[in-house]
Amino acid sequence: MKAAIILFNILISITTFSQNTGAIQGTVIDIDTGEPLPFVKVILEKKPEVPLNAGTTDFDGKFKLPYVTCDTFDLRVRFVGYQTKLIKDVVVNPDEITFVAVEMKTSDEMLDCVVITRDDIQMSRSVDAASIASTTSGVYKEGRRRDRSGRNKEQNTESYSKIESNKFKKVKNDPLSTFSIDVDKAAYSNMRRFITSGNLPPADAVRIEEMINYFKYDYAQPTDNTPFAIHTEYTECAWNKNHKLVQIGLKGKELEMEDAPASNLVFLIDVSGSMQSANKLDLLKTGFELLVDQLRPKDKISVVVYAGAAGVVLESTSGNKKETIKSALQGLTAGGSTAGGEGIELAYSIAKKNFVKNGNNRVILASDGDFNVGTSSESELEKLIEGKRNDDIFLSVLGFGTGNYQDSKMERLADKGNGNYAYIDNIFEAKKVLVTEIGGTLFTIAKDVKIQVEFNPKHVKGYRLIGYENRVLENDDFNDDKKDAGELGAGHTVTALYEIIPANSKEKVSNIDPLKYQTTANTEGNMNEVLTIKLRYKEPKGVKSKLIQQVLHDNITPLNEASNDIQFASSIAEFGLLLRDSEFKADANYEALISRARQAKGEDIEGYRAEFIKLAEMAMELTK
Questions:
Q1: What is the C-alpha to C-alpha distance for residues 105 and 420, in angstroms, rounded to an integer?
Q2: What pLDDT digit, counting tens, does each position of 523-549 carry?
Q3: pTM of the predicted protein model
Q4: 257-441 has which fold?
Q5: How many CB atoms lie within 10 A of CB 119?
Q6: Where are the domains of the chain?
Q7: Class for domain 169-255+445-511+524-622, per CATH?
């Protein structure tokens, strides 16, 4: 097929225009496959390599640049792994949309993407939500290699907690593995932000369990009175032919919005100076408006803001007064320092004041995590949050922005506040978190969910929990109801993978000498049992945990015959091992995981799995 660029103008009267402006709209596809290309950077130029405006294509390969001053421009279209396309003499007329159809061809050389900052874009009007979602900070000269941090050191103040990968443990010495579940998904969308900007993420930003749990899996709902069902699968390990892979999956009971209990929500919004970027406060407001549209008359919303000081912008308001709530959100502007601790105190007091008995009482904190006034250290903020969770008020944390993003603080706050943590990098992610998956985001069906796995030495010589490094618990914590653990939301799926060294392997597992006095427990009656899963959880307002147990038998399935769920989850795990350059990556490689992910994509209505495949392809190009 011959490459083609189509330009045509249509006179249309919509709100895309203002005086002496028009708009540019179009699509970008792969010339060979005809497939739309998401996350393609479209840059408007008047002079070569001088950006005036920029946007990014959505999942359908569509883009839009509104409020463009009438003139003649060039469009530069860039995408990792594709040849740059320069479209010259694009004419923008008053009150018209100029449509552009672009076909891109793959390149044998890695494309070094240019990332556009908000400050570099001189515009007379705000861009629309799609454009807001696409802008990121950090500008690099073309052809310059970046390190794994994705930006110049002097510009980068982002922080990530150090991750020490779980090691293989010898079953005869350590037969028990105990951890808290994790439903956070921030690491995946944050990783996506780096890769679509043309950079690999820092290794410590890659939390493999959050990447796996970003996706839904085809686990059946519980059929009894328990809030979730346990599913297991046993197959071969894709990146190490001498190892096996065990998948443990939880499926939370679905909850229809109309059947959900009444909500008392407090939006706690950071409006400090660090939130001025378009991919922070502007995107935050657009995302919260999506949530407001889902509210019912019985739901209540309050809005609290904090900068140099904290204040109430909107007292508790019924969910049927949507325009009033949206008006309060749209009036927010950024400026000043960040008194995060004071804002948290005020938000919890408002939530307690309007507490709904037997309802969903929750603070939703939205910030870049850059607290710098008052209570700001992680330990102080954690103690503050821990002291509030006994009031049966849950916490959701939504992260925004780049450059100074404090991931470590945001993750810990959600963990300590009996809540969940997501990173919003674009309007599609806002819709996913606040609309599509609103039940899991807002409605907790089980809290303090802990898993303990006991391995049978007759079948397992060694094991390694993949990910969950900051969720590992002491074995004694499992039966301690005072020990905090993760929360499960309505409809949530949680997946954990164990890499297994079979009992007959000659591989050395640890440097610990064989124990002299200990003996292996008698397992003659359990010859076919690979492991036993014990799970403890509390009801959302409960104080005493309940116990569930399930056994995995030695019925291993070849990987190519295993379910799409474990094949796709293992592809993500393998991807994470490569991004972290893990010592346990063995024979992991991009080609194999991409091929397996394609085969296991299954029904992909929202397109999230297809997006993962594209991200893996982009990451592979960035490693060349």
A1: 40
A2: 555 679 999 999 999 998 899 999 999
A3: 0.77
A4: Rossmann fold (3.40.50)
A5: 11
A6: 5-127, 169-255+445-511+524-622, 257-441
A7: mainly beta
